[in-house]
Design brief:
The protein has a single domain, classed as Orthogonal Bundle (Cytochrome p450), CATH 1.10.630.10. The relative contact order is 0.18. α5 packs across α12. The chain starts with 13 loop residues before the first helix and ends with a strand. It is an alpha+beta fold. The protein is built from 17 helices and twelve strands. The protein has a five-stranded mixed sheet. A three-stranded antiparallel sheet has the order 4-12-11.
Length: about 400
């Protein structure tokens, strides 16, 4: 049977959001699946279950490829939210086969390892410039001055968005991503709709321009990508571009500031990293495990499943707790300890299965570039004050991270 839920799990409590890991430990101790009434979801906290469910085709990011809202026992979104849902529902992340397979295959033709590798000098050069500017200023806000501008500029560069057009990208993204939190408010939904309309209108114009004058950029590549007569629709291209921007920088920004705050709180590990920068690749993986940027990932139950004797019916929603899975002592030795030399590190911060993050190689390049640049240009970096956590639980990060040298 499902264990009754420990009330320590409270995703709207700032104390919980600041440090959810003790509550996760209690959840793991008390069972493999828990019903959480405030969001009407089944929480899954163990690594083995999360890893298996991410690959289980009885679950889906959507149900509309098989059922209507009514058939699935769900209510259709309010009509006024249609622009957000049109944008969201045509992206790879919220589709299932066969549409997911087709779109991911076509996007992969443009978003190739070679394309990503070709960006590496640009990423490294920009990271060095940002880190040097922070150092020259004697400090600043690591989020605003390094963590945020780097991935936004990289994705914009990939997409071929001119520098003069980039200012609204981050606000649009933040407003859209507000809808991925638990029980978003009407005000959050209104902001997301407005951003969806504005971002879509901008991309529609950009796509039209690239059709007339193709360039060496991802939007031109998405227009050209085809399998025989199969091409991406304009809406699929727009949704793909927005997904790549949102997923391609929200997680990287939060991984950067969460990671440096973790290093500041573990000075022995920071000292080891400064003494041996060759630790950067394993450090990145460990920091993404230790303080996971995306704490929860949701799936619909398309066909009844059973977890540890608990039957979860069709129409239910599963919430997989990535942060908990990444601290599961059944998989990670001494999971509460930050260990930058950890080699056996099967964290699931990039998800798994068919929805494994297509941008993971780019994220690793960006994280390595910024960490290496800061170690080199700002070797005495230290926190200026205790940072404030954002109230968000699902996409978890800091409001800022003030630093000094």
């Amino acid at each position: 049977m499902a264990a009754s839920l420990d009330l320590a799990f409270d995703p709207w409590d700032p104390a919980f959001v600041t440090d959810p890991y003790p509550a996760y430990a209690a959840l793991r101790e008390r069972g493999r699946v828990h019903f959480f009434e405030p969001t009407n979801q089944w929480l899954v906290p163990h690594h083995a279950d999360v890893s298996a469910l991410l690959r289980d085709r009885r679950l889906g990011r959507t149900y509309l490829h098989r059922f209507s809202h009514e058939e699935f026992g769900r209510t259709a979104p309010p009509p006024e939210q249609e622009p957000f849902h049109t944008l969201n529902d045509h992206g790879m992340l919220d589709l299932e086969p066969p549409d997911h397979t087709r779109i991911r295959r076509l996007v992969s033709k443009a978003f190739t390892p070679r394309t990503v590798e070709r960006l590496k000098p640009y990423v490294q050069g920009l990271a060095r410039d940002l880190a040097a500017a922070l150092a020259d200023a004697g400090g600043g806000d690591l989020l605003r001055d390094v963590a945020e501008p780097l991935p936004v500029a990289v994705i914009a560069e990939m997409l071929g968005i001119p520098e003069s057009d980039r200012a609204p990208l981050r606000p649009w993204s933040a407003d859209i991503c507000g809808m991925y939190e638990l029980n978003p408010s009407g005000e959050t939904a209104a902001r997301a709709v407005r951003a969806s309309v504005e971002f879509s209108d901008y991309l529609r114009e950009l796509i039209a321009h690239r059709r007339e004058a193709p360039g060496d950029d991802l939007v031109s590549g998405l227009i050209a990508a085809h399998d025989e007569d199969d091409r991406l629709t304009e809406q699929e291209m727009i949704s793909t571009c927005v997904l790549l921007l949102n997923a391609g920088h929200e997680a990287t920004v939060n991984a950067t500031v969460n990671g440096w705050w973790a290093l500041f709180r573990n000075p022995d590990q920071l000292a080891a990293l400064r003494a041996d920068p060759s630790l950067v690749p394993t450090a990145i993986e460990e920091l993404m495990r230790y303080d996971t940027p995306l704490q929860m990932f949701e799936r619909w139950v398309l066909d009844e499943i059973e977890i540890d004797g608990t039957v979860i019916p069709r129409g239910a929603e599963i919430a997989m707790l990535f942060g908990s899975a990444n601290h599961d002592p059944a998989v990670f030795a001494d999971p509460g300890r930050l260990d930058l030399t950890r080699r056996d590190n099967p964290h699931i911060s990039f998800s798994a299965g068919i929805h494994y993050c297509i941008g993971a190689p780019l994220a690793r390049i960006e994280l390595a570039a910024s960490m290496t640049a800061l170690l080199e240009k700002a070797p005495t970096l230290a926190p200026a004050e205790e940072p404030v956590r954002k109230p968000n639980f699902v996409i978890r990060g800091l409001e800022g991270l003030r630093v000094t040298l």
